[in-house]
Q: What sequence folds into this?
């Protein structure tokens, strides 16, 4: 009986030790680098690789079977990785260049995935989520680009931002909701995309090529938006509220705009249920002042060279 009790205690001790084990690989090369690390929970794994001078990595993982990888090459870079009370999640951050900033925060969820990749100088990326099964991806190539994905609460959301050039800005901000999808791609200089959202099952796809183009969108409800802009200083400002509203916008050229009817308003309006807008503007200086209120309305507008 004594041998049996000893065997059971030994097995329990080995099982507990195995269950509580976390693994981290840490490598620093250079001068003046700082890497405070906290890893708590069960079965967490990670790797931190820092090359250069005066870099900072703040690394906190508290949860279960969560993976956090950080690679930073260059000087004066900062990385914040914070995963709190998460299970089965993955965070990957990679930076090459100088004075880049990356921050990823996951709170209280399962199965989340975040990927941040930056190459260049003075770029900034932020991805925050509270919920489960969210997938966020940011890729930036160039200098002084900024991307932010902020989901206050929700699950099964997908958001990606790809920016190439200088001084581009993207924000995908969701106050509450699930099953939203966002895709942002910008190539050029000083383009901007702002998406503010409250609700579920919204989709937004924005593709901009050129310089100083802008998209400013609000989505409240279950709506869909596709914007493609090529050229210089094209802009879209639109609010979608209600359900099953859809807008497809193509602008090619320079200084084409979708704006509100009233100069004192900030956004064109699509409000109600089942409304549809199809807009094509080509050439230079075309303007659509737009409002669509009610249900099951359809507007198809073509202006310019076509």
A:
């Amino acid at each position: 009986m004594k041998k049996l009790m000893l065997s059971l205690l030994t097995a329990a001790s080995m099982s507990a030790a195995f269950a509580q084990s976390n693994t981290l690989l840490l490598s620093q090369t250079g001068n003046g680098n700082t890497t405070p690390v906290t890893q708590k929970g069960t079965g967490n794994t990670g790797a931190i690789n820092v090359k250069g001078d005066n870099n900072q990595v703040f690394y906190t993982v508290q949860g279960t079977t969560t993976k956090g990888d950080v690679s930073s090459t260059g000087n004066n870079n900062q990385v914040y990785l914070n995963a709190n009370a998460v299970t089965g999640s993955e965070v990957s951050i990679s930076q090459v260049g100088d004075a880049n900033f990356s921050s990823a925060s996951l709170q209280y969820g399962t199965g989340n995935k975040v990927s941040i990749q930056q190459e260049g100088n003075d770029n900034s990326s932020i991805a925050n989520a509270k919920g489960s099964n969210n997938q966020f991806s940011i890729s930036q190539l160039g200098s002084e680009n900024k991307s932010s994905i902020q989901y206050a609460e929700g699950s099964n959301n997908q958001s990606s931002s790809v920016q190439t050039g200088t001084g581009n800005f993207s924000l995908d901000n969701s106050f509450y909701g699930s099953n939203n999808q966002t895709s942002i791609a910008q190539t050029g200089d000083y383009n901007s995309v702002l998406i503010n959202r409250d609700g579920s099952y919204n989709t937004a796809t924005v593709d901009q090529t050129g310089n100083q183009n802008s998209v400013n969108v609000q989505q409240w409800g279950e709506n869909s938006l596709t914007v493609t802009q090529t050229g210089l200083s094209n802009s879209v400002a639109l609010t979608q509220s209600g359900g099953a509203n859809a807008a497809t916008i193509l602008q090619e050229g320079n200084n084409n705009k979708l704006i509100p009817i009233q100069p004192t308003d900030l956004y064109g309006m699509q409000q109600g249920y089942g409304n549809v807008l199809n807009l094509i503007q080509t050439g230079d200086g075309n303007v659509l002042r737009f409002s669509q209120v009610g249900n099951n309305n359809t507007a198809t507008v073509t202006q310019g060279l076509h």
About this structure: The longest strand covers residues 235-254. Helices lie at 2-19.
